[in-house]
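Practice problem: predict the structure.
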Amino acid sequence: MPAVIQRNVLENPGWYTAYTPYQAEIAQGRLEALLNFQQVCIDLTGLELAGASLLDEATAAAEAMAMSKRVSKSKSTQYFVDERVYPQTLDVINTRAKYFGWEVVVGDFETAKSGDYFGALFQYVGAEGDVKDLTDVIAAVKENKTYVSVVSDIMSLVLLKSPADMGADVALGSTQRFGIPMGFGGPHAAYFAFSDKAKRSAPGRIIGVSKDAQGNTALRMALQTREQHIRREKANSNICTSQVLLANLAGMYAVYHGPGGVKRIATRIHAFATAFADAITESNDSSLSVVHDQFFDTVVVDCGSEKLATQIFKNADNVGYNLWRLSDTKLSVAFSETSDQQDFNTLTQLFVNKSHDLPETARVSLDSAHLRTDDILTHPVFNSHHTEHEMLRYLKSLEDKDLAMNRSMISLGSCTMKLNATSEMLPITWPEFATCILLHRAIKSLAISR
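Answer:
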């Protein structure tokens, strides 16, 4: 998280005490920040509209399933889920489907093409980090009137072909990677993008641009699907809130870095993963192999034996690296914006008994067919505030157009009752909690053996 955003949004009561913007007239700053968030999601997914965030990726996927049933013309009660989704996503989908009486079918692309489903959900990038072009499978399932959703890593979309270009009707995911700390798993704002024709069936809320009586530009909540406004049995969704503060942080991350900045960050992440895969491939250890040749940030290594995989896993854990054990012999290594040369050296030594230096130039190993060719974040707001003082002034200008608890009581009872006290807010910015500083940072030398 850029320090200017942490200091002036997350730690600023002018932002963190502002609650749901029921009264648009006194929430113009917040609404502009959410409009920025929506534009980020629209640009990266390629779809026409996006909501002002949902709770998290897994519940957004369940909302996509419910939306698919509302929109799809198929009579089927089966919903297809890509076997490459994350387990927590599948768990939430199964729970939601159970009470609607829908059958969830989990399988590969051939299963998707051969069945009759009212909706289908695909993971992009896969849980194992594999990048697959979904264009053909999406086209095939849509021939059966199937409504298609794609769960996408927001940072990967900076480099990869957009879900819309592959034919998706809905794109969703988490915006954690846009400057939100891990926080031991959450909370992280979800995004939800969709086509214009489906806007009245979408969950959550949409911030829209209008003109007031004097002809001035004004922002408002254009559409919202809350149970307070619509009879529950007629509501698109019973989602009660959105992750506004976290969505604002993610939107401002894009404002601050701009298109050039996020491309450098995404390319650097991918370059770390590529260099690590190269180190595995070029090692003299024939027992090690890279499982997927197309990936964004995650490399799955098959260690050839359970014994070797267990030893590497334990050594990594001992020095503060939490690898994902996919099977008896497979380990997954994921890189992020916070990865550095020390991480790379340690991880390569864990696997190949030899530390490697990063190449001087970043190598993109993705096939050109997977890469996006269109421009992103072209709006002036993403190309104007790239220094700390420019960003500070922009944030202050929005805060001045808003009402929060630092100025006044809010004339809605629940808003005040739900306010987090300062003593509760403080720990979320502690490095030990927010960024989970690892043990290896304090270790000067490592003795790693196999």
